[in-house]
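call fold target=Type IV pilus assembly protein PilA
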Amino acid sequence: MDGLEVRARRMAEAGFTLIELLIVMSVMLILMTLALPQMLKFRKQAQETSAIQSVRTIGNAELQYNSQYPQNGFACSLAVLGGDPKSGAPTAQSAQLIDPTLATGQKAGYTFAITNCSKVTVNNQDMYTSFQITAVPQAVGKTGDRGFCTDANNLITVDRTGGTNCTEPLQ
């Protein structure tokens, strides 16, 4: 063999054939197809964990609010518990006890609300004596499967259908 033939043979052996590339791409596609549902499941679990932590945060903020503003009792909106720290000192209408992002009611695929508030009037001042915090997935089955609730007892309960009919304790 002369030098030209040897060089031509090496060039032919140096690359991948079209069939080899297609096989590799098919294997990668199969692996991605298997991994994607698992990744979505982990993301949904992370969002549920974030929702549980946010419900705890709001519950603790309610207890702090009740302690700092006893004449008002509890807060009946997330906006009252929130507030921009740059706007000045905390007030009963802007207590700055939760993150402003959480005070919007939307975080990590969940919608949060304070509902079922009971109030009494004492000396012409409305005082909220009870509340319920709810967290529901923005898209049940996609951003989360379960809804979460708590009240002044700070016991988190679960609705497995993703709503606010929370009857089971969180385990």
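return ok
The beta strands are 106-107, 110-122, 125-137, 147-151, 157-159, 168-169. The first strand starts at residue 106 and ends at 107.
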